[in-house]
Amino acid sequence: MPELPEVEALATFLRERAVGRSVVRADAVAISAVKTFDPPLHTLAGAYVVDAERHGKFLALVVASEAAGEMLHLVTHLSRAGWLHWRESLPAAPPRPGGKGPIAFRLHLAPEFPEGPTSGFDLTEAGTQKRLAVYLVRDPLDVPGIARLGPDALTVTRDELATLLAAQRAQLKRALTDQTVLAGVGNAYSDEILHTARLSPFKNAGKLTDDELTRLHDAMGHVLTDAVARSVGQRAATLKSEKRSGLRVHARAGLPCPVCGDTVREVSFADRAFQYCPTCQTEGRTLADRRLSKLIK
Q1: Helices assigned H by DSSP within 136-277
Q2: Cβ contacts of residue 72 below 8 Å, gap of 6+?
Q3: Residue ranges making up the domain that contains 22
């Protein structure tokens, strides 16, 4: 799933490629992906792209629409298997709605130069669980998921983080990935943050000591800032590989921890898994797989 650093990089990429250009049209290929109907998608035609924004893990393209007579926000949540693919040249014919391919939505932008090709981007989604969502709204807060977001993980202060976590009774891993508590962190970067902070994923979020809170806040800032720095400037097509190359424990079960050399372990759930280092995070204890036995805290 794209998380804060990748979505920030995609927003930067769209500022460089799309801002200053006008929209030719929008093709809703997977009708179920479009979650709004007012304003209608056809009001995007002729709209002028003025900015790209990130709201947690939501990506938004800001356009000035003459047809609507106001600013509009084309918002997408890429979910677990979605991605944005920039196309320097797009076919004139729209994709067939309801087709079996991965394309869910296509945005055509006017050529940068006279007689040049129409370019733009496809929003695609792999797999059978279709959760990618597209919204056209007047205000980003009209998107329910954005309205519920907690403070952004990249800018939250240490004291704000302490207040947020003090109200939680969940395990630390769950609290960090709850977007209503903290916006932008998902499964991968929460693993990286907890490893850097030397904290167990199953620690009670509301019972951290002052030292643990400081380590957690410092780790969050370091991990996310470093990931944004590595991601911004990358082409959309290379962001996924850049993310994988920077991970130290996530998706590295069975490999040596780059800090202490212990074997990175994994805990699996029904549809996902997370990774951690016993030596760095759990005082050498191995956390039992939830599918097999009770968790060791």
Answers
A1: 144-147, 158-166, 172-177, 187-197, 210-231, 239-246
A2: 39, 43, 44, 47, 62, 63, 64, 65, 136, 137, 138
A3: 4-147
**Tally of domains in the chain:** 2
Q: Taking the alpha carbons of 76, 77, 78, 83 in that order, is the dihedral positive or negative?
A: positive
Alpha-carbon span 2 to 184, nearest angstrom: 9
Cβ partners under 8 Å of residue 207, min gap 6: none
What Å distances lie between residue 11 and 6, 75, 142, 162, 228, CA to CA? 9, 11, 20, 29, 11
Query: Which H or E element spans position 14?
Result: helix 4-17
Judge whether 171 lies within some domain: yes
Question: Strand, coil or helix: what is 152?
Answer: strand
One domain for residues 266 and 212: yes
| Integer Cα distance of 220 and 199 in angstroms | 12
CATH code, domain carrying 10 = 3.20.190.10
Q: What pLDDT score does 275 carry? A: 96
Crossing angle (nearest 10°) for helices 210-231 and 239-246: 140
Write out pLDDT tens, residues 125-168.
988 788 999 999 999 999 999 999 999 999 999 999 999 999 99
- What phi and psi values does residue 177 have, to the nearest 5 degrees? -100, 0
Residues 33-91: tens digit of each pLDDT? 999 999 999 999 999 999 999 999 999 999 999 888 899 999 999 998 999 999 999 99
Q: Are 13 and 128 contained in the same domain?
A: yes
62 neighbors 49 (Cβ within 8 angstroms)? yes
